[in-house]
Amino acid sequence: MQPELIDIVFRSQKRRDLLLLLGEEPRTMEDIKILLDVSPTAILPQIKRLTDSNLVIQKNGSYELTDMGEQVFKKVRSLVDVLTLVEKNDYWTEHDLGGIPQYLLDRIGDLKDCNLVKADPSQIFEPSTDLLKFFSSSLYLMVFSSFYRPEFLPLYSKLGRLESEVSLIFTESVLEKFLYNYERKIRKLSTMKNTELSVCKDGAKIAELIVSDRGMMVSLFDSQGRFYHEYMCCSESQAISWVRELFDFYKSRALKVEGEKSIDNFTCTSENGAFSESLLLSLH
């Protein structure tokens, strides 16, 4: 983008807002006045600057972006989303993003509408009742967890019985702990036709992901690898799609646990030591 074009787009908030507005769809002057809450006198000079730069064109009584305007819009929209994300909360700058693949980091602005939820210090070691209630009526549920959260087992079982689609990914140490304390429930989950259980190696830099048709939540470790009982959540479709893609990324690197035999293999291997390559093959 030429320096003068950068000035045209970013030196005026009115021009930037207008560009973003027209990126959604063509607008009449009346639309622009109402949606941007401006007078014709204030916005007409900005429209002229954009039309003189071949970013906007007037056609059939409406203003719309040119082909070049569309390309500029995409870049500006992405940058504005990221800046909104960072300015809204320090969570993303204070936590480790190393567990997120580059293609999703490039679109991290999709999470701009997320809100930070912190646990009450007096309830840190108690079940997260708000999360349990929120996800309890999901049509599908996808969970990646690298820390032990037994209070969620009833939710997985309930949704499984209701024939919701449930997909769970636990790290090896988390699954081992679940099997030690709740082997019967894990065995039952692994045999439900609408529930999929997978396992991945330890060391993931994501603490937890939960995504459903109702919304999403993400928990990250801080830059020192520590976990605090707080998470980012959102119900916007853009954020849900982003977290589903992140879940799919980890699912593609996990191994499915299918039925009693796989559970037996895991239990046997866990009792004898580390999660082995032979077990990885047996789980496939």
By secondary-structure content and strand pairing, the structural class works out as alpha+beta
**Which range does the strand content fall in?**
15-25%
Shape: elongated
Named CATH architecture of the largest domain: 2-Layer Sandwich
How much helix is in the residues?
Answer: 40-55%
Rg, rounded, reads 24 Å
- As for the CATH topology of the largest domain, it is Endonuclease, Chain A
Biggest sheet strand order reads: 3-9-8-7-4-5-6-10
Q: Given the structure, what is the number of helices?
A: 13
State the order of secondary-structure elements, H for helix, E for strand. Answer: HHHHEEHHHEHEHEHEEEEHEHH
In the residues, how many domains can be counted? Answer: 2
Briefly summarize what is shown.
This protein is α+β, with helices and mostly antiparallel strands. It has helices at residues 3-10, 13-24, 29-36, 40-52, 67-88, 91-94, 102-105, 129-135, 153-161, 172-191, 237-251, 259-272, 277-283, and strands spanning 56-59, 62-65, 115-118, 140-145, 165-171, 195-200, 206-212, 216-220, 230-234, 255-257. It has an 8-stranded mixed β-sheet, with helices on both faces.
Can you characterise this structure?
By secondary structure, this protein is an alpha+beta fold. The chain folds into 2 domains: 5-79, Winged helix-like DNA-binding domain superfamily/Winged helix DNA-binding domain (Arc Repressor Mutant, subunit A); 89-279, 2-Layer Sandwich (Endonuclease, Chain A). It is built from 13 helices and 10 strands. It has helices at 3-10, 13-24, 29-36, 40-52, 67-88, 91-94, 102-105, 129-135, 153-161, 172-191, 237-251, 259-272, 277-283; strands at residues 56-59, 62-65, 115-118, 140-145, 165-171, 195-200, 206-212, 216-220, 230-234, 255-257. A hairpin with a 2-residue loop joins strand 1 and strand 2. It is elongated and about 70 Å long.
